[in-house]
Design brief:
By secondary structure, this protein is α/β, with parallel strands linked by helices. It contains 5 helices and 5 strands, in the order βαβαβαβααβ. Strand 1, helix 1 and strand 2 form a beta-alpha-beta unit.
Length: 140
């Protein structure tokens, strides 16, 4: 049913839980997994990422993808950045560009600023996505 699955990762515990689910689903379906991470940048002269630990987040995302690849799951990473609009439209674009069949995200992530102003990625993503969006709740 699924040939290509995009998983949105932001380093949060919820996104790690969603990654485990997406990886399991990809294995069951024989699908490839595209790991998407969106760096949110501050608008203005100061610029730069919203999260002070962005370099660490990106390294962690790459490491998680490498682990899945080493386990035999076809996995790739797509890093992108945004200044406005939050991660949801960027994740939807990654899915469009990859011709993905499904997008998986955690129910809550690290995007506190845009979450307060615009709503969570999980809430906004279905408005931008052209494929089904699966939201994985926090682990019990």
């Amino acid at each position: 049913m699924f040939k290509s699955i995009v998983i949105g990762l932001d380093g949060s515990d919820q996104s790690k839980h969603a990654l485990a689910f997406a990886a399991g689903l990809a294995r069951e379906e024989g699908a490839k997994l595209i790991v998407a991470h969106v760096e949110e940048d501050i608008v203005g002269k100061g610029g730069g990422p919203i999260h002070a630990t962005e370099d660490e987040l990106q390294a962690e995302v790459k490491h998680q993808a490498e682990e899945l690849s080493s386990e035999g799951l076809e996995t790739s990473v797509k890093m992108t950045s945004v200044m406005l609009g939050g991660p949801a439209p960027a994740i939807a674009k990654v899915a469009d560009d990859a011709d993905a069949d499904l997008i998986v995200v955690g129910s809550r992530g690290l995007s506190a600023i845009s979450g307060m102003l615009l709503g969570s990625v999980a809430q906004r993503l279905p408005h931008f996505a052209h494929v089904p969006v699966m939201v994985i709740p926090s682990s019990p």
